[in-house]
Specification:
The protein has six helices and six strands, in the order ββαβαααβαββα. By secondary structure, it is α/β, with parallel strands linked by helices. The protein has two domains: 75 residues, no CATH class; 52 residues, no CATH class. Strands 2-1-5-6 form a four-stranded mixed β-sheet, with helices on one face. The chain is elongated.
């Protein structure tokens, strides 16, 4: 990092995959994240995000009931379309770990913290019914820059 004077999509970030033991950490250009940590377009929709929150708290069946019993029938229709897209992604073998919006926010975070810090993505084992957890953070690299 100390040779870079400006941020670009080749700036390094750390990916920590802790879903299995031992954890694996790799350093990659931030511009490659979309191909390394799978992205879901479906989970970018507000209705699917709401369903995921409800499902994490109350279970999938209760979440379906809430989404389809909502007074806003258009929201139910938008949810159904987004859920169909999610199922299509999964059927094609794309198990998105985060949304395109989440990825974009992380890329911007790496730009904002450059060059004092490096961005990191940690993929964690899930809790309860969740298949995984995802955590993004930045870490100071001052000792590496001298």
């Amino acid at each position: 990092m100390n040779q870079r004077t400006e941020w670009d999509l080749n700036v390094e970030c750390v990916i920590i995959d802790a879903r299995k033991s031992p954890s694996i950490a790799t350093v990659n250009g931030v511009g490659t994240l979309g191909s390394l940590v799978s992205v879901s377009n479906a989970i970018d929709t507000p209705e699917l995000r709401k369903w995921l929150e409800i499902a994490a708290e109350k279970g999938a069946e209760a979440a379906f009931a809430e989404m389809f019993n909502d007074e806003d029938k258009e929201a139910g229709e938008r949810f159904a379309l987004a859920y169909d897209e999610l199922r299509k992604e999964r059927k094609e073998g794309r198990k998105g770990l985060w949304s395109a919006t989440d990825l974009s926010k992380f890329v911007l975070k790496t730009r904002d913290c450059f060059p004092e810090s490096i961005g990191a993505v940690a993929i964690l084992p899930g809790e309860g019914t969740a298949s995984h957890g995802l955590l993004t953070f930045e870490s100071s690299v001052s000792s590496l820059l001298s």
